Every structure is written in C-alpha cells, then in structure tokens.
Amino acid sequence: MKRTLKWYELLTLNGYQLGLSMASNVISPLLLPALVLAFMPPEKKNTYTAMVYVTGLAVAMFIQPVMGMLSDRSTSKWGRRRPFIAVGALLNILFLGVVGASLWFKESSLNGFMQSTFGITVSLAVLLLGIILLQFSSNISQAGQQGLIPDIVPEQQRGRASGIKSVMEMLPAALVLLISPLIDKQKFWIVILILMATYLVTMLLTVLFTREEPISEKPPRPEGRPILRMLLLTVIFVGVTQLALLLVKGIGTWLPEETTSLALRVALVGLAGLLGMAGSIVIGVYFGAQVGIGRESAQHMPFIWWVVTRLMFLAAIGSVRNFAMFFVKDVLQVPNPATVTTYLTAVIFVFLLISSIIGGILSDKVGRKQLLAVAGILAVLGTIILVFSRTIPLVMVSGVFLGLGTGTFMASNWALGTDLVPREDAGRYLGISNLAGAGAGIIGSSIGGPLADYFNAIQPGLGYPVVFALYGGLFLLSVLLLPRIKTTTTRA
Fold first, then answer.
1. Does residue 215 belong to any structural domain of this protein?
2. 432 in Cβ contact with 227 (< 8 Å)
3. Cβ neighbours around 69 below 10 Å, total
4. How far apart are CA 114 and CA 46, in angstroms?
C-alpha cells in the first residue's frame, strides 16, 4: 500500500509540470503565432500556424507513448520516471535555441526562393524544425512526469494530486502577464531565455525532491511490436484528420459563390467542420487505440471512451487559446494583442484555479463524471459568449466560464483516467492518452486554422466566431458521450 503523501510532496512531485505548462502557455498561444506572423503573409497566418502545430504534435503523438512504455520498464537506480524528466528537460533547453535561431534568417536572401519553391520561408522552415525537436524532447520528459501520480500517489489522494497538477498546468497563465509585453515588442530571445530557465529550475525541483523507488526487474515486454504500433497509431490518427480536412475544404470549394448565401455557406461548411472534427476524434482514437494497446483493447473500452471525451474537450479549449491572439488582433483590433490575450488567459486562470482545487477534492467524494458534465456545460456557455464578443469586457466574461469549466474538467478528468488505467502499464496507457493531448491540437488546428482563413477571406473577422462555435459543439459532445465511460469505482 502506498504511503500517504504530505502536501509539499504532492507539490514537488508536480513541480516540473509548471515548466512544461509555462512553455505551452507561451509558445502555443503567443510566441509561435507572433513568429509565424513575422515570417509569412498575414492572410494565411492561421493556415501556416496550424501547419507548424500539426507537424509538431504528430511527433508528440508518437514519442510520448513510446517513452511512457520505455519508462515503465526502466530499472534505473534513480527510478522509472525521473531520468526521463531530466534528459527531456535538458534537451528542451537546447532545442529552444533552434526555435530562436529562426529569427536569424528573417532577412535571408533565400526567403524568396524558398517561398516560391516550397511555399515557406527559411525562417519558417527553421522554426518548424525547432518545434519538431522541441516536441520530441518535451514528450520524453512529459512521459516521465505523468507517470509519477499513478506510481507514487495512493488512490484516495489522486484527486488532490490531479488538482495540484492542473494548478501547475495553468499557473503560468498568470505568470505570462510578465512575458506578453515582450512579445508585443518582439523581444523574442528574452522570452526564450526565460523559458530555458523555467525548464531547468522546475526539473530540478521534481527530480531532486521526489522519492521514487526503483524497480529491480523489468516488467514483461508488451506483446507484438509496440513501437511499430505507436507509429501506426500516429499515422492513422493524422491520416483520418487530414482526410476530414480535405472533405471540409471540398465542401467549401463545391458551393457556388454566386448562388450560396453567406448564412448557408457558414451553416454547411461549419457543420462539415464540426462533423470532421468529431468524426476524426472518434475514428482516430478508436482505431488508433486498437493499434496502440493491442489485443487487450477490447477489455479497456472505458479507457478508450475516456480518451475520446478528453480529446474533444482539450481540442476545443486548446484551439480557442491558440487562435485567441489572432481573434483579438483582427476582430477587436487592439494595438497590443499579445497583452490583451494574456489578460484573457489570466481571467481564465483565476477561475480555473478556484474550480480545479475544489474540483479535485469533490471528484474524490461525489464522482468524476458528474463534475465533467458540469465542466462541459460551463465551457459551452463560455464559448457562446465568446462567439458574440466584440468588446474586451465581454471577452473577459467568456473567460470566466471557460476557466470554471476547464479547471473542473482538468481536476476530475485526469483523476478518472488514473482510475481506468492498469497500474503496471500506467506509463504506456497514459502515453497513449496523448492522443487527447497532441491529437487535440492536431484536430483543432488542422481543421480550425484553414476554416478561419477561409471565412476571413469571405468577410474579415468572420472566421473566428465560426470556428469558436465549432469548438463549443465539441464541448457539448464531450458531455453527451460521458455515459460511454463505464466505471466500477464509486467515485467515478
């Protein structure tokens, strides 16, 4: 039986999560869009931003479950998880330097040739390389980090531990207030140096102060060829998503401009986008998990449906965040979009902090799925308000509901996942759940980005309300599919 942990042990155990989340809160919603806007034509910024997201996240989808599986079988004297955290964090620092190096090629004479030949500038190509490498290293360390809770924390404390994890995931939303003005001023290298320092400090906090017992013998190797299965899982998921994108683009192209009203075009293409996102999630997760888990997948259908609902929620909230800065810039037309976006993120964080702590405690007492239903409804309300927002105060009101919903979701959803996975293969299963992390970004960005540019070309600023409405549909579907997650524990 695992020993009961002190509050500060739960804190240090989740310490490196702060470093991972600091990077994700800066790179995805702020730094990456700002760099793409600096390197490529503004009318295609959503499409090119989506391209960089999707490529990097496809790498993450493959790497994290593989590294989770390898950490499951690690017999290092430092424990199963901490060596992966340390190595991944140090590589993160190195690869952030590659991201920064993209700035050196901004004025390169090769940009014209590259853009006319390959459709991208040299700077964007270097940025893409940096993001791919950074996803590789980040998911080495994240695979180790997310295995700590099921390894070390007793079941009766996992709600609290997951609540602290969610706080660490969103605390950077407030810290980014200090960084966003640097992005508005294009002080990109200073931002990168801050992220490097954060990776190092938080990694040391977890690695040095977490007590982890090493295993003396490796668990049995999973049946079949697990790494090949993970690669096939990634190919299936990305392939399904890209086929859905082609379908959505095809519908937009087939509609005759002269006879199709704007309202009908929004309804038909928007509905196709929602069906494409939802269908990609269900089909991609189902068949991807069949490949990733193997023959035993039929015994773990509740886990597979958990990944589906988790992916729907994360695809929606992550994509709202990723396109928020362009929405603020193009629709609200403020001169400092990164700073205003950070204000929105801070509002979300304040209410997320409250709901995640309360939600973590309540999920141990009243049930995970009940709280997840509440979380989805709150997020739907927040998205509806955002769709009709044309002023900064109204955008902030939407942030209140999105924060309450997301905090409740993050605490109770991860606790439900740790209840569903087999302990002896926790790293591999929770690595497969990266379908809901990396897959969320792939679906939300690869379909949402081109759709935003498509509707913006028809009417400036129209694309963002349309795609935000689609993300609200995903929130709602994440609630409607909760009964599919059959559980045996009383807390679920």
1. no
2. no
3. 24
4. 20
306 located within any domain: yes
> At what angle are helices 438-458 and 45-72 packed, to 10 degrees?
170
* CA-wise closest residue to 420 among 372, 353, 368: 368
The tally of domains found in the chain comes to 1
Secondary structure element (H or E) that encloses residue 33, with its range: helix 32-39
In angstroms, what CA-CA distances link 243 with 278, 286, 320, 443, 477? 13, 16, 22, 11, 21
Residue 396 lies in a domain: yes
Helix runs in 328-437, H state only: 337-363, 368-387, 392-420, 426-432
Give the pLDDT confidence of 382-432 residue by residue, as tens digits. 999 999 999 999 999 999 999 999 988 987 887 788 777 776 666 567 656
Residue 478 corresponds to which tokens in the numbers above?
A: 């994440």
Nearest-5° Cα angle at 144, 102 to 223:
110
- Number of neighbours of residue 421 by Cβ within 10 angstroms: 19
Q: Under a CB-based contact definition with an 8 Å cutoff, are residues 192 and 100 in contact?
A: yes
Tokens read off for 51 = 């391209």
pTM: 0.75
Query: What's the CA dihedral at 389, 392, 396, 402 to 10 degrees?
Result: 40
CA proximity to 386, closest of 402, 370, 373: 402
**Among the residues of 73-215, which ranges form H helices?**
82-101, 111-118, 122-146, 148-152, 158-170, 172-175, 180-184, 188-209
pLDDT, tens digit, 9 for 90 and up, residues 228-275: 777 777 787 788 888 888 888 788 778 777 667 888 888 888 898 898
Higher pLDDT: 47 or 129? It is 129
Q: Which tokens hold the place of 437?
A: 């992390």
Q: How far apart are CA 136 and CA 93, in angstroms?
A: 12
Tokens of 269: 């293409």
The model's pLDDT over 438-484, given as tens digits with 9 standing for 90+, comes to 666 777 788 888 888 889 988 988 999 999 999 999 999 999 999 88
Whether 205 contacts 63, CB under 8 Å? no
Mean pLDDT of the residues in the chain: 84
Percentages helix, strand, coil for the chain (3-state, rounded to 5) are 85, 0, 15
Residue 134 pLDDT > 80: yes
173: pLDDT strictly greater than 70 = no
Q: Which domain holds residue 19?
A: 7-208+226-484
Does 311 map to a domain? yes
**Phi, psi angles (nearest 5°) of residue 474:** -65, -40
Dist. CA 72–CA 431, nearest whole Å: 10
Q: Is 393 helix (H, G, I), strand (E, B) or coil?
A: helix
Residue with tokens 């193997």: 294
Q: Domain containing 128 — which CATH number?
A: 1.20.1250.20
- Measure the N-to-C terminal CA separation of the chain; round to a whole number of Å: 21
